[in-house]
Automatic annotation (TrEMBL), chains A, B:
The chain crosses the membrane at residues 35-55, 67-86, 98-122, 159-182, 226-250, 262-284, 334-362, 382-404, 442-465. Keywords: Cell membrane, Ion transport, Membrane, Transmembrane, Transmembrane helix, Transport. It is found in: Cell membrane. It comes from Agromyces binzhouensis. PANTHER family: KTR SYSTEM POTASSIUM UPTAKE PROTEIN B, TRK SYSTEM POTASSIUM UPTAKE PROTEIN TRKG-RELATED. This is TrkH family potassium uptake protein. It comes from the Bacteria. Its main location: membrane. It is a multi-pass membrane protein. The keyword Ion transport applies.
Length: 481, 481
């Protein structure tokens, strides 16, 4: 199986490292999805083991964390979901918090890197960086089109290069956000060390769209601080766009016309959902005494946008989700299910997937032969991929909701909310998740894993399966609708 | 606008009837969807007016039925939904019941006829009967394929012929079911006249997939009668398949190989959903003391299949929906949303629409260039139509659920159930609908109307909009999933 790879460098020079490198290449090339699943599963198992240690738990004499809570937290950390079954601010020791801090970064960067590697493996001709850049560029000749029949060799060196790009960009953005947050945390009376820790934790938690809180009160402690909340929103927003869009914004922010259709589609849909969500929360909750009822109009307006931002995948909240009206919970469900941008740390079916569905319906209504957006024709096969992703998501959410409802007999408002939050790695919770029995926590963990790894690998797995067919069957048309 | 039509017969021969015929032709041809909406709206307004009369209400001195209840019942009758805000067995006078009895038949036949007319208007070459038959036949050359650019003239005479075919078939099936039901009703001690009325009402209510009950106890009165319940299931099942499938079964039941892809796809998906639904109800409810907990295994098994049948669009129930576990309510939601066959009296997005989505995902997973089913290639543009229908349905359900939840602050389990039941014209209810305030009843009525008329007209409206484009835009590929 490795003959052609080995042949290139000659069998005599084959070292232990070379063998590992070859095995890696073979795995990535032969089944990129299995590779991604393996990487995530390994990271989760290591994190679970470390978090189970008594050393990871705060206080002495408590013993270790129960396996289901350690496992749940590990999945939630590596999948950057942000759902919790223990109090993140008080349950873990400094060692445990360090594991979680590193886990969020590894998980966030892992998703970004894997999404790009998988995207590369199933495409042709482009180098890794070029691939990442390509989606941010408008030159159609540089963008892959049509079914893929060959696979691109991915060398460990290339992956390393990509990891460095992603890591440096991620850490740079996180550092800027952290520095910006420092004055706000210091102003709350924390000493310099704790302020640094809280700021760093919040910056990482926000940009990776995790949503864990390091302080006992959570973001509510900064409810009066527009600056701090705005930084959270900015970090979550950037993280949820994905690097193809971030790079386009950084490189060509002066000339939006040069942005690729992916960038324009992601930004348009994200902003449309952001505004629609905020308006919905404003209309539905303005007179709810438990949420925005007692706030000024400006504050209600601002918090509605904060809430809408966090449904993208951030998962921070300044109000109790359980206090929302059922109507707002349902609106949140829909926004969470859609999630953020492709190749980002956000989850869900992704904004471009939703956009493609609506572009298809719009093209159908106009009777146009092809989907179009921003003066570009969208290839037809994208619709089939989008439908597959939505069916996958809907199936996971449906099965998980039925199981959790049957186990707990809880109200659908809360079960659907927490399940979609898990699937879309959002992390907002009505409080149901932490009250689940162990078997329910395992179901939720499986939902988080399938929501995270599934949506990242599914598109790649499906695209990689493209093959030619040598005969055409007779065509026949069923009636639909 | 009518020049070519008039020209054919010469202006001198133009009579009053001819003018009406021409106006009818123009309306059907120029906007078949608007024509369908007009027909349904007119039928609903007439029924509302008649049901509002004091004459239509049982008992004397009660005055008329409130407008919102008369309107709701009219919509529910004409749209063959079966949701109620009054007790159907006791609220109406014989006159009111006659209106409803006729309304169910008119509504059921109206849907069947309109679906076929609309199908014809947007297709070419085929006569009305041929068109109806075509979908039941396997000969691909007789089936329309590809985008439609011309429109077919539909003459009043042709519509009349179709109406006769549909009406005769409908009344024949209903008569057989009615005769079969008579012994069961007589056995309950009702006199001959009332037994005839109940049997006729149940036969019509079942075959048109309405779900109204004429007797105060409803189908529960026949809970020990396997024969009666089986007849209900058969009538609902046949009605939900649609005439293209019924005709195929009647004409070529001995040679299933000759069935068209539409027939095979409808039957396969319907049976798969039927069995899956029954298994789900069996597993989730077997130990629910309020539903199947106290029943024997055989009875539980049978009732699970009865329940599963009724989610297709029948809407009869032998248990209280509000007693189901939340998990079963959610399973029912999904089954109702899918609904029955195309060009049938059932509602929902239709089984073939769901099948096309899964065929697309399956083709994507296999990397096949085209969707395939039963050795036939399914045209690509069908997927776009299916996606449009699902988006339409999801949007109606979402908006309606948010509004009803906000108005009533009821639990999502119940609101989602009744809203999907309304959209999919199923008629099962948790009891929420009849407790709604007037404005909630109007929202539900609108949901029923859009679910019924929308899904019938949407496909036609979209298919009719097909047009050619003379230029091709450059292609560019966004990232999805
Ligand atoms: K999150
Ligand atoms: K019904």
């Amino acid at each position: 199986m490795t003959s052609n790879t080995v042949g290139r460098r000659g069998p005599a020079r084959r070292s232990w490292l070379g063998g590992l490198r070859d095995a890696f290449d073979v795995l990535v090339k032969s089944s990129p999805s299995r590779f991604a699943i393996l990487v995530f599963a390994t990271l989760i198992l290591i994190t679970t083991a470390l978090l189970s240690l008594p050393l990871a738990r705060a206080g002495s004499g408590n013993g270790g964390t129960p396996l289901y809570d350690a496992f749940f937290t590990a999945v939630s950390t590596i999948c950057v979901t942000g759902l919790t079954t223990v109090d993140m601010a008080t349950h873990w020791s400094p060692f445990g918090n360090t594991i979680i801090f590193i886990g969020m970064n590894v998980g966030g960067m892992g998703v970004l890197t894997l999404a790009s590697i998988l995207g590369l493996v199933v495409s042709r001709r482009l180098g890794l960086r070029a691939k990442l850049m390509a989606a941010s560029d408008t030159n159609p000749s540089r963008v892959h089109a049509g079914p893929v029949s060959e696979r691109q060799a991915v060398r460990l060196g290339e992956v390393g290069g990509l990891l460095v790009t992603v890591a440096v960009s991620t850490l740079a953005i996180e550092a800027v956000v952290m520095i910006g947050m420092m004055p706000s945390v210091l102003a709350k009376g924390y000493d310099f060390g704790l302020s640094l820790w809280y700021s760093a934790y919040y910056a990482v938690s926000a940009f990776t769209n995790t949503g864990f809180n390091p302080n006992p009160l959570g973001p509510v402690e900064f409810f009066d601080d527009y600056w701090f909340q705005s930084l959270m929103m900015l970090a979550v927003f950037l993280g949820s766009l994905g690097f193809p869009v971030i790079f386009a914004l950084l490189r060509t922010w002066k000339s939006p016309r040069r942005w690729g259709v992916h960038v324009k589609l992601t930004l348009t849909t994200t902003i449309a959902l952001w505004v629609a969500g905020a308006v919905a929360f404003l209309v539905l909750e303005y007179n709810n005494p438990k949420t925005y009822g007692g706030l000024s109009f400006v504050k209600t307006f601002y918090e509605a946008f904060f809430m809408s931002t966090m449904t993208r995948s951030g998962g921070f909240s300044t109000i109790e989700m359980a206090d929302l009206y059922g109507s707002s919970l349902l609106v949140t469900d829909m926004l969470m299910f859609v999630g953020g941008g492709s190749a980002s740390t956000a989850g869900g079916i992704k904004v471009t997937t939703l956009a493609v569905l609506f572009l298809a319906a719009y093209a159908e209504a106009r009777g146009a032969p092809a989907m179009e957006a921003f003066g570009r024709r969208i290839p037809r096969d994208i619709l089939r991929l989008a439908v597959s992703v939505v069916l996958w998501g809907a199936t996971i959410v449906a099965v998980s909701t039925v199981i959790i409802t049957q186990i707990t007999k809880s109200a659908l408002d809360f079960v659907l909310f927490d399940v979609i939050s898990a699937f879309a790695t959002c992390g907002l919770s009505t409080g149901l998740t932490e009250s689940l029995p162990p078997e329910g926590k395992y179901v939720m963990a499986a939902t988080m894993f399938m929501g995270r790894v599934g949506t990242v690998t599914l598109a790649a797995a499906l695209a990689a399966a493209q093959k030619r067919q040598l005969f055409r069957r007779p065509e026949e048309r069923p009636i639909v609708g």
